[in-house]
């Protein structure tokens, strides 16, 4: 994607220095964990490491106590 | 070398694991084992932590259990498909230092792009972003190596056309290496899209062929560990 077509969020991200990006990424990582995000790999049948016997779609939003009760029609 | 390196290069905002490329030497394995012990990180999947398996191209997977990094996965490889041997990768690495003096050694962007040419669909947009960011950062100083890198690896039709217009001689010189540049010279973005898709399919096929014997080995490792 061309730079001109990126969202403002991504343009701001690219404008950071590599070290600033790393520090921001650490914060995103912490927020992700605080929200119950899972560190399990996303199930990806196109990955050579994918093992259907051990991979699962996991709990909704990665938190053990959350389950999808209802989804949209599409 | 994986998602974390993409964060440094601006192509990703976040990665759920850490991928390490390691020089295959006993001293390094000892240091890795010590670090994994410190992180309380046992191996979590096949193959076993075996230098011979790493040499064949396998990745070994660990998961940290120490409280401050609980759940974090660490993947280790010593060899990557179609990439130069480790000493060459090391020589051309990117090194970044933080305010405390900690050093981060990353795969050079051209090597990271090559490493991302996998069968996994999620890796391909990353290549696009890595090359585009490199172009944006270095467009004002287009060395021969940089121009060749952009022309060979850019994945956005309009960027490739833009490059072909800026650097027509270099584009002609690379036609044999990347035939779709012919479309770029004619500014034909529509013709370029299926050609870009074909490039992806070719690389994915190479990656599947590379991994096929390793996947069979992993099946066997799993079978043995279930016994």
Average the pLDDT over all residues of chain A and give the rounded result: 80
The sequence of SSEs of chain B as H and E is HEHHEEHEEHHHHHHH
Please work out how many helical segments of chain B DSSP would assign.
11
Please tell me how large the radius of gyration of chain B is. 20 Å
Q: SSE layout and pairings?
A:
The complex is a heterodimer of chains A (74) and B (227).
Chain A lengths: L7 H8 L2 H17 L40
Chain B lengths: L2 H6 L8 E5 L4 H13 L12 H5 L4 E4 L9 E5 L8 H6 L2 E4 L5 E4 L2 H7 L8 H15 L5 H10 L3 H10 L1 H6 L7 H5 L3 H38 L1
Parallel strand pairs in B: 1-3
Antiparallel strand pairs in B: 2-3, 4-5
Task: Report on the architecture of this protein.
Chain A has about 70 residues and is mostly helical. Chain A contains two helices and no strands. In chain A, about 5% of the residues are buried. Residues about 60-65 of chain A have low confidence and may be disordered. In chain B, strands 1-3-2 form a three-stranded mixed sheet, with no helix packed on it. A two-stranded antiparallel ribbon of chain B has the order 4-5. In chain B, about 30% of the residues are buried. The model of chain B has no long low-confidence stretch (mean pLDDT about 95). Chains A and B meet through helix 2 of A and helix 1, helix 6 and helix 11 of B.
Task: Give a concise summary.
The complex is a heterodimer of chains A (about 70) and B (about 230). By secondary structure, chain A is an all-alpha fold.
Features:
heterodimer; A: about 70 residues; mainly alpha; 2 helices; about 0% strand; B: about 230 residues; 2 domains; three-stranded mixed β-sheet; two-stranded antiparallel sheet; 5 strands; about 10% strand
């Amino acid at each position: 994607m061309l730079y001109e077509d990126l969202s403002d969020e991504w343009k701001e991200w690219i404008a950071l220095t590599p070290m600033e990006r790393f520090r921001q990424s650490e914060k995103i990582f912490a927020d992700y964990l605080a929200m119950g995000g899972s560190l399990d790999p996303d199930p990806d049948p196109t990955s050579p490491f994918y093992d259907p016997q051990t991979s699962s779609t996991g709990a909704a939003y990665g938190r053990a106590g959350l389950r999808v009760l209802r989804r949209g029609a599409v | 070398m994986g998602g974390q390196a993409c964060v440094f290069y601006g192509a990703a905002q976040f990665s759920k694991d850490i991928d390490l490329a390691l020089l295959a030497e006993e001293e390094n394995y000892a240091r890795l084992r010590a670090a994994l012990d410190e992180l309380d990180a046992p191996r979590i999947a096949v193959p076993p932590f075996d230098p011979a398996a790493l040499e064949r191209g396998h990745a070994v997977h660990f998961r940290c259990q120490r409280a401050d990094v609980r759940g974090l996965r660490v993947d280790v490889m010593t060899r990557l498909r179609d990439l130069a041997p480790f000493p060459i990768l090391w020589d051309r690495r990117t090194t970044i230092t933080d305010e405390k003096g900690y050093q981060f050694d990353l795969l050079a962007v051209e090597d990271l792009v090559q490493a991302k040419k996998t069968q996994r669909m999620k890796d391909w947009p990353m290549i696009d972003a890595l090359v585009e960011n490199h172009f944006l950062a270095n467009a004002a100083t287009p060395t021969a190596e940089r121009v060749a890198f952009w022309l060979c690896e850019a994945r956005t039709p309009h960027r490739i056309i833009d490059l072909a217009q800026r650097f027509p001689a270099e584009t002609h010189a690379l036609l044999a290496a990347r035939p779709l540049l012919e479309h770029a010279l004619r500014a034909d973005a529509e013709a370029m899209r299926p050609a870009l898709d074909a490039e992806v399919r070719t690389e994915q096929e190479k990656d599947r062929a590379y991994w096929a014997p390793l996947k069979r080995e992993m099946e066997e490792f799993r079978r043995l560990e279930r016994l």
